[in-house]
Amino acid sequence: MTRDRWERLKPLFHGALDQPAARRAEWLAAACPEDPSLQREALALLESHDGAADFLEHPPALDAAALDELSSSPPGQIGPYVVRGELGRGGMGIVYLAEDIRLGRTVALKALPVPAANDSGRRERLRREARAAAALTHPGIAVVYALEEIDGDLYIATEHVRGRTLRAELDEGTLGPLRALDTLIDVVSALCAAHEAGIVHRDLKPENILRTEDGRTKILDFGIAHVTDDTLTQLTAAGAILGTPAYMAPEQLAGAAVDFRADIYAVGVLLVEMATGRHPFAGSEPPGTPLPPILREIAERCLARQPGERFGSTREVLDALVHARDALTSGDEAAAVDSSRATPALRFTPRWWWEFHQGAAALVYGVMAMPAWTARHLIGGTPGRMLFLVTVAAIIVSASLRLHLWFTSRFYPQELRWVRARTRRFIGAADGVFSLALLSAGLLVGDARASLATLLIAVAIGTAVVCLVVEPVTERAAFRSWSHRSSRPA
Amino acid sequence: MSQTEPRSDRATRCLEQITRGDQHAVQELMPLVYDELRRIAARYIGRERPGQTLQATALVNEAFVRLVGEKARGFENRAHFVAIAALSMRQILVQRARARRAAKRGGAPERVTLDDGLLPSSAVPIDVLALDEALTRLGEVDPVQARIVELRYFGGLTIEETAQALRSSPATVKREWAMARAWLKRELGG
């Protein structure tokens, strides 16, 4: 069809359309007698018009796949964020890898779903929670940088953590009880920090936990899980079929208010799934690795239907997990099950002895400041002063680091490995200096005060023996699992 | 264009320029609208439950409200905006249809979705690629009619709104729409 021909067809079509259907052919023949083919063309078009019904009257519809494809190339820039790529998409919308051009830092930028963005009440609640979450600075929690309102949309900018989700790890198979415990201890200690700051995660699951490249764990999405809560509750109420909310506590599924105990429930699910490779309520599936009794007991307390029957605090969960690891690594599981029923008398694990060793050593060092002071005056002059100074410096370094180790072991066990690695050289050096200084002081004091000289020399030798012989053994006993973990049977 | 000017202000300014007849502003507004459509689609992902579909025009409307909102409520502004959004929507749907056709040829399993013909609103499934090709041919002989189809079908404009956008009369638009529809129906083998 040429443009020219189209221009001739047009008046024929319109003219004939104004005629009653029966008279159209006749009208066309009269209007365009010289071109029968154009007449036929116009007639065909009229026929098509009469049969067109609602052809093209309804705009096209987009299904989920179409929306997915439509949004598959990320927008170039969102406010001050330049989008570099996509990190993932799912129930919460899309997460972009973006760069904050104001600070030049890389962030994970999460677009919050439409309903949350539209409701001012939830917006305010979200803002409050984001503020609280931003105040959390724990190495096990991905930092929330900002809640951004950009052109009416809500975005959460968080630390971009490189690593794999626990889900990916679990898909490759069970972690086994010990690795599961180590991982969970990391997670729960981060959870402790959040709960003590009054923030509940509400959506703890393997998808929300990353293992970073250096082996630590990070919890993602603190304080924003409730964005999807309401939708979920509504949908559940309407009887819609959802994916298995496999990590949600019963009270949360019922739509009731939740507190930290909902997270403790999720910890129970995680514990079972990580240790056995199998979800605790995956009824008919073939059984996975059996759960050691000590872990089963913890899991059961986490998974109690009534929140009041679960652990009373997250710190208690952490203690129980640390204790379970000690028990499993020392092979003394039966005793551990008993002692977990709050009988502290049975707690002499190698780890306990190691802690005792640190505390006792710090105490001995501190006490030795007194005889060193006396020796200083007996030796006199610059050598006396110098020896005393060196001794005190060694005491301060060694005692404070040992107390730090003791404290970390008691209260932040997940940090211990790192703290040990960092302090080992300093403690070793301080111990060496301490022994040598005391030995020299003892020799210099000599006959002037034989009893003092004996004490100084004895402690010097004692320190050397303890550091060279006793401590390495205690250490191996307490931490052997860390070097032989994979080869130990569960 | 400056980076600091918010998208919404940029969109409003572009619309005003378009209303005054500045065709360069169309070039500036196009990517804004296209981006916005994608952003909105991204927002709907995950919220959409299987079986739900969204009218393309709902997306266009939302894009208008988000980008321009209260600032340019004028009827004409809206019509211009939708005209651009309709063009974007046409491109988007055609690209998607091409991708699907390529996937089918590649032997990938065909995804059966509701807009493949089960949806009550389009009892006759429309082959977007064939429509696009026919529309391009129509544009060669009658650009105005092609534009009308784009606005009505991909943009969801009414006859009156289309007339406004094209600075024409509703009666004319109605006649041209009737002819374009009849011709396209024949071209698509209906």
Q: Gist?
A:
The complex is a heterodimer of chains A (490) and B (190). Chain A has 490 residues and is of the alpha+beta class.
Q: Mind explaining what this structure looks like?
A:
Chain A is an alpha+beta fold and 490 residues long. Chain A is built from 19 helices and ten strands. A six-stranded antiparallel beta sheet of chain A has the order 2-3-4-5-7-6. In chain A, strands 8-9-10 form a three-stranded antiparallel beta sheet. In chain A, helix 1 crosses helix 3. The longest helix of chain B is centred in the middle third of the chain and has 31 residues. By secondary structure, chain B is mainly α. Chain B starts with 6 loop residues before the first helix and ends with a helix. Helices cover 67% and strands 1% of the residues of chain B. Chain B is built from eight helices and one strand. Chains A and B meet through helix 1, helix 3, strand 1, helix 4 and strand 2 of A and helix 2, strand 1, helix 3, helix 4 and helix 5 of B.
Kindly name the structural category of chain B. mainly alpha
Low-confidence stretches of chain B: 107-123
Q: What is the topology, as strand order, of the major beta sheet of chain A?
A: 2-3-4-5-7-6
Largest interface: which pair? A-B, 56 and 64 residues
Task: Tell me the number of strands of chain A.
Answer: 10
Helix content of chain A: 55-70%
The number of helical elements of chain A comes to: 19
Overall radius of gyration of chain B:
17 Å
How many helical stretches of chain B?
Answer: 8
